[in-house]
Structures are given as C-alpha cells and as structure tokens.
Amino acid sequence: METHFSKEQLKNKDNKSSEKILRKCVHCGFCNATCPTYQLLGDELDGPRGRIYLIKDMIENNKPPNEKIVKHIDRCLSCYSCMTTCPSGVNYMHLIDHGRNHIEKTYKRSFGDRFIRNFLSRTLSNPTNFRIIAILTQFIKPLRFLFPKKMREMIKLMPRKFPKKTLPNMQVYRALKKKPVARVALLTGCVQKVISPQINEATIRLLNRHGIEVVVPKGIDCCGSLNHHLGKSDLAHQSFKKNISIWYEEYLKNGLDAIISNTSGCGTTLKDYGFIFRADQDFKKKAKKISELTKDITEYLDENVKLNFIKDKNYYKEYKIAYHSACSMQHGQKLHQVPINLIKKTGNKVFNIADGHLCCGSAGTYNLLQNDIAKQLLKNKISNIKKINPQFIATGNIGCITQIANGTKIPILHTVEIIDWYTGGLKPEVLSKL
Ligand code: SF4
Ligand code: SF4
C-alpha cells in the first residue's frame, strides 16, 4: 500500500511503525474471509482491509475521525484472526492500537460513551473497585430495566457470587521440594482473581507440586491491556511501567526464570511490552526483558515441566472435552496445539470447535460495549460447541470463560485446572456433578 507520510510525521515512533505496517498490505482482502465482524455484518469497513484504510486516512492526514470511522474501528474485536490469515505479515495489532489511541486523543465521544468507557477503565482494572461495584450491582439488578441498554447489559453480566479462596494471599509460594527447580512470577490479574481465584490457585499448586517456586510481587494487578484496548494510553502506560519496574527488580534481586500468565489476553500484552517501549530509553531494555520472560502457563509447562500425570482409572473418568481456542491465545500468541496436546496427555478426548478461529464475542470489554455483535458471536460459538456434545469446555482465558458461561450450562474451565486436577490437584468445583 502506498503511503504519504511527511518526513516530519515519520519522526513520531508510532507513525514510523504504522507506515511500515501499511506498506506491507497488498489489499488482497484474504483477511476479510476470517474476520468475525466482516462475516457477520458484510460491510467492507467492518473488515480488516477497510479498517486499515480508515486508520491510514486518520493518521496520515493527522485528522480527527468522524462518527462513522469510530463506529467501524470500535466494532473491531482486536481478535487478530486477520493476522493469522494475512499472507503479507501485516501487524494489524499494532496498527489498530495506534488507531485507537488516535481516536481517544482527537475525537470527543458522547457523554454516555465517555461515562461507560471511563467507568469500565476504572472498575475492571482495579480488583478492589471491581469487587465493590459487583457487590453493589446485586442490589440494583431487579431495577436494571430503569438503566440505558449498555448499562443494563453490564449489570446483567456482573457475577452473582464470588468463589471462596483456598490459598492465602502470599508473595512467595514455596515449591514442594527442598531445592526449587525454578522460580517464576505469576500475573494474578485484575478481574480473574476476583471472579475465579481457583485458576490462580490451580496454577500455583501445580507449579509448586512440580518443584517450582511462585512469586506474586506486591503492587501488580492489571497488566494494562484493558486501558490499552480502550485507547487510554496514559492509564495503560502507568500500569505497564509499574509492572515492568516491579518484575525487573525481582528479576535482578532474586532471579526469575519466567513470568507466567494464565490469561491469554494479558499474556499477549505482556509479550508486547518490548514493542510498546521500543523508543523509551529508560524502559526499553527492561520492557524487552519482561516480554522475553513472559510465557503462557501452557507454553511454560510444555517447554519446562515434566508433568506427573496420575493414572488412576477408578478416580479419573474419561471425558469428552471441547477446546475453545481464545483469540489472544491462537492469534495473539500463536498457541493453539500446545494447550490441546497438554489436555490430551490427561487421557481425555479433546475436540476442536468448528469455526474455532472465530471469536466468542468476549474480547476484553467488547461484550459490554458492543453487546449485539458479541451476542451473535456467542450464539454461533455455542451452537458449534453443542455439535460436539461435550461434557465440558476448556479454554485459557477468563474473558472467554465468562462469556461462554453466559450462553450455556455446559461447564467450562481453564486448561490449567484440568492439568492440576490430573496431576494430583483438586477436582474443579464446576465438575462436581460429573
Ligand atoms: S482484529 Fe478481528 S475483528 Fe478486528 S479486523 Fe482483525 S479479524 Fe476483524
Ligand atoms: S490479508 Fe494482509 S495484505 Fe491482504 S488485505 Fe488483509 S492485511 Fe492487507
């Protein structure tokens, strides 16, 4: 694609990298074939190629977008399915991030939109705020018909109860071996640790049982991706910098073999810290190191741990499992087969879901901000899951777990819960009746 950035414009690091990305695009449109929003809406501007043109026009001409452009960019899920398909290696992820930041800086949204986006930004990225709001929401649930549509949907999606934690909050979880074989940091996340603490607990138990010490340094909650995808770069960068500084200090002082993410949406962003700070002299080196250290839990287990599966046919039944490949896992981190192979080692039957490259509609805050499209994507996903008739569903991202659980009664759990259970950990509570 031809570009016309001026020399002055190319002094800006974001323009410079976007120019490189844009030049790679050959307008072939292959990406449209696997874009969930293009598939649903059939509008060129709701597909990656159309969005690439819209972003190019905004940033090249350095002009604020109009309402129509914002609508089409907002409808993008940031699922990165287009990146998997693109034969020219167009990094759509970095381009849409730039586009979103540009919109946030140059476009004034309606009062209602600003209110909702600011509310999500401040609530979801902070576990304490999220817990308080979720509790308060229970009282207004019966009156939710009084609220505007988006707020009604948000209230509906708030969790009803919070599972009890079985592990105390600690900064170091010791390995069950005198001499640990490795030492890793765990990102416990913001929403996940409130609504599904059992995922972090299964991760810690599993790693500890296999001789790995787990540290959860104080001060790290949100990875920053929530604000990053809302285009709120200042808030996102505050989280990024705080996390990088804390982990880097831990790495230098006590040593870290890896930083483990068990939420693939967050893992994708952590792996991008190096790119985000590529021009920041103070953070460049540290951010690059943090990205290099980051591993999805399944990736870390596959590469580093000899898992001790317990073979006891009297205790472990054989299940039929549908595996949902989260977009951030398969398209963002290019990890698809690794989690499936790990689950297969438990002796269970694992099935890919038809049209598995398409998003379930969760996509961070998407199911709250673009509810109609998210609902349609969820409906399609559930219908494809039902074709498998599984006893339960497995996936590696809390957003997908929450979204899919809203559309079906089939139990859904995190991959790490299955691996923990089959290597001597607790049987996940959602399977208590199976
Ligand atoms: S990120 Fe997903 S929704 Fe957005 S353009 Fe690419 S494929 Fe379409
Ligand atoms: S597939 Fe790649 S090169 Fe082709 S239009 Fe899409 S982004 Fe451009």
Summarize the structure in words.
Helices cover 51% and strands 8% of the residues. It is an alpha/beta fold. The radius of gyration is 21 Å and the shape is globular. The mean pLDDT is 94. The chain binds iron/sulfur cluster (2 copies).
Brief synopsis:
With 434 residues, this protein is of the alpha/beta class. It is built from 23 helices and nine strands.
Q: Bin the helical content.
A: 40-55%
The assigned structural class equals alpha/beta
Give the percentage of residues in beta strands: 5-15%
Q: Main β-sheet: number of strands, strand sense, barrel status?
A: 5 strands, mixed
Q: What ligands are attached or bound here?
A: iron/sulfur cluster
Task: Give the terminus-to-terminus CA distance.
Answer: 54 Å
Enumerate the spans where pLDDT stays under 50 for 5 or more consecutive residues: none
* Strand arrangement, major sheet: 1-3-2-4-5
Q: Give the overall silhouette.
A: globular
Number of strands: 9
- Mean pLDDT equals 94
Q: Specify the number of helices.
A: 23
As a whole number of angstroms, the C-alpha radius of gyration is: 21 Å
